[in-house]
Amino acid sequence: AQSVTQPDIHITVSEGASLELRCNYSYGATPYLFWYVQSPGQGLQLLLKYFSGDTLVQGIKGFEAEFKRSQSSFNLRKPSVHWSDAAEYFCAVGAPAGGSYIPTFGRGTSLIVHP
Amino acid sequence: DVKVTQSSRYLVKRTGEKVFLECVQDMDHENMFWYRQDPGLGLRLIYFSYDVKMKEKGDIPEGYSVSREKKERFSLILESASTNQTSMYLCASSTDFYEQYFGPGTRLTVT
C-alpha cells in the first residue's frame, strides 16, 4: 500500500521569503500526487496535482511542486510567501495500479507566516 | 465550480444521541467520502461510496454508518455519539478516486 510522509509539522517563514514544504511518498510505481491547502476552519482545496509528464507542476495561488522519482518526493514551493498563505498543507498520494484507489493523506504541515 | 455543502458548520450533541451529518454535492460525482480530522492525525477515512446505495468501510468505520439514497447526498450517522467522536468531519466528492473536492467541514462536539 502507498504511504506519504510530511516530515515537518510546523514551518515558520517571514512574509516575502521563499517556501518549500516537503513530501515523501512510498509506492512501487509512479503515483498520482496532490497538494491541498486548508485555511483555518475550512475544508481542503486542491492546489496542484501530478499524474504524468512534466515533473514540474504549476498550481493555483503561485505554488509549484516538483516530482522527483529518485528521491520519492513531491515538494511544494512558492518563491514569495504572502500572509494569506498561512494555513495547513496536505500532501496526498493515489495508487493508480492495483491496491487501493483511495488517496492517502499525509498528516499535514502547518505554515506560519511572520510579518 | 464544484460545490460540496455540509448541513452544519458547528454541532453540539450529548453522549448517546443519534447524530446525522449531511453532505450534498452539485456536480454529479460518482464518489463521495467522509473523513474525520484530528490534530496531529491528519485525515482519516471513515466511509466512502462509489455509487448510490453502495458503501465501503474506510480506515475507522467503528461507531459510524452511512447512507446514500441519492447520488448527490451522502449522510454520516453516529448511532450513539460518544465523546471520542468529537472532531472535525469533512465530506468530499470526486469524479475519480483521486482528485477530491471538499466541503467546509462540520465541527462536532459531543458532551
Can you put this structure into words, describing what you see?
The complex is a heterodimer of chains A (115) and B (111). Chain A has 115 residues and is mostly beta strands. Chain A has one domain (3-114): Immunoglobulins (Immunoglobulin-like, Sandwich). Chain A is built from no helices and twelve strands. In chain A, strands 2, 5, 6, 10, 11 and 12 form a six-stranded mixed beta sheet that branches. A four-stranded antiparallel beta sheet of chain A has the order 3-9-8-7, with no helix packed on it. Chain A has a two-stranded antiparallel ribbon with strand order 1-4. Chain A starts with a strand and ends with a strand. The mean pLDDT of chain B is 93. Classes of the chains: A mainly beta (115), B mainly beta (111). At the A-B interface, β5 and β6 of A face β5 and β10 of B.
What share of residues are in beta strands of chain A?
over 45%
Count of folded domains of chain B: 1
What would you say the CATH architecture of chain A is?
A: Sandwich
Examine the secondary-structure arrangement and name the CATH architecture of chain B: Sandwich
Low-confidence stretches of chain A: none
List the helices and strands of chain B in order: EEEEEEEEEEE
User: What Rg of chain B, in angstroms, do the CA atoms define?
Assistant: 13 Å
What coarse outline of chain B follows from CA principal-axis ratios? Answer: globular
Q: Report Rg of chain A.
A: 14 Å
Oligomer: heterodimer
Mean of the pLDDT scores of chain A?
A: 91
- Number of alpha- plus pi-helical segments of chain B: 0
